[in-house]
Amino acid sequence: MSSSIPAQLVFAPGQSVADIDTSATPGFSGAKADAAPVQAERSARLTELQEMLYASHKAADDTRSVLLVLQGMDAAGKGGIVKHVVGAVNPMGVRYTSFGKPTEEELAHDYLWRIRKALPPAGHIGVFDRSHYEDVLIVRVHNLVAPEVWGARYDEINAFERELVDSGVRLVKVAMFISLDEQKRQLLERLDDPTKYWKYNPGDIDERLEWPKYQEAYQAVLDRTSTDYAPWHVVPCDKRWYSRLAVTELLIQALESLDLSWPAADFDVEAERKRLLDA
Amino acid sequence: MSSSIPAQLVFAPGQSVADIDTSATPGFSGAKADAAPVQAERSARLTELQEMLYASHKAADDTRSVLLVLQGMDAAGKGGIVKHVVGAVNPMGVRYTSFGKPTEEELAHDYLWRIRKALPPAGHIGVFDRSHYEDVLIVRVHNLVAPEVWGARYDEINAFERELVDSGVRLVKVAMFISLDEQKRQLLERLDDPTKYWKYNPGDIDERLEWPKYQEAYQAVLDRTSTDYAPWHVVPCDKRWYSRLAVTELLIQALESLDLSWPAADFDVEAERKRLLDA
User: Fold this and answer.
1) Scanning A49, A78, A239, B203, which has the fewest C-beta atoms within 10 Å of its C-beta?
2) CA–CA distances in Å: residue B222 to residues A192, B48, B148, B225, B226
């Protein structure tokens, strides 16, 4: 069974970030309660596909991998995707990397240096919590490098991703959008609950105030780096149950596109059974 | 609520590997059906503690970490521990590494080189699926290096682990034991199910035939590297539901020993609330 969610999330040329309905649930007509059983069933499917990907590498030298790229403003729900969607699959086959403020060593290298180091090995699902896109988002908004430097990066990123795709990496790029109201609600929740203080960063408000500039920067990312080989998906995130289901479906679609199957035995099953029974 | 399982699993000086009752369930008197609700409840507790560890690093510069070391013969259930026990916690806070046959680059370095590279960052739970102990197990059984070389490693490993503990790593060393009968049953299962062929390796039978030598090598590991700062735990694994519960309890015990708490706000909560409502 395939879902109609993924097709509806692909960024369409000309689509405006300002017009995104962040409370919509494209491709899913039900409510939260309807989503729960679907999520459980689809998480199981994702888990099965992930194991097939892992098995295909392990036993049949399949060198492909999947890379989930999560971008979004603070409180858009990236952490929830990692915990609930990625958390549903076997950690053995997952490589998670969070890209924060670059270290001194990272800054002493090209911006893609730390990204390349974190690419998933064959047979794995890589998860980037923020990514090389920060180098044309926060870097652009705060003028951390000269405009001609970040300006050149869109093409560089496209070339980099072309190379990844050619080498067998299936990219799943997810741009997560919430409304400013929902963001405020989420941040307030962190202030209302002492077990969530650690997630709160006063700097988040400063970034929030830069939303118009971020909107412009996101628009440029979508306009200039949504390619046929690595399209962006625009995921409305006011309803967290929906964004989790949506990312689950995007990963399933990516894995299904690999036409995976359980590797055949590269040994004589009957002979091995006999050997084992005698051993 | 604490469990009596961990205390019963600590390796006792003089304890013989040959005498381990691999079908026992030390510290748990119930059956499989009784374990299910306990496992669910304890997994939730583990998840909470892991988040506190992560939060303590993130918001309060706590530099401690936990390192789970899994050792055991083929089909002892290491993969199941990773999938079900480690899989229950947030992947954001987990660093999983599987140590297979060393690569050429790894062989060109000291045996602890690849181990050090894989140590968990502060605030994380590291998981070693096999470990530096292979360098005194498979290496010893197959004479991959001279006896004086592997013979020196027990003390080296103790010194290495002393350093880790001093630097804030809480080690949880788990030796998983199954009977030869249960191992045969598990390996046969892989031959009976085409979705499990990829887990089957004809070499496993060769290793199985070396069990007497492995038993000796495991005995030496337990005798010589179970220290007061990094004791070994002997986990009977014929009943997989038990071994999963046992490792869950060992991780909970390790995390509880860190006396974690939710970090206090390092900002003025009321001032931030006001700022946010105005923003």
Assistant:
1) B203
2) 49, 31, 19, 6, 5
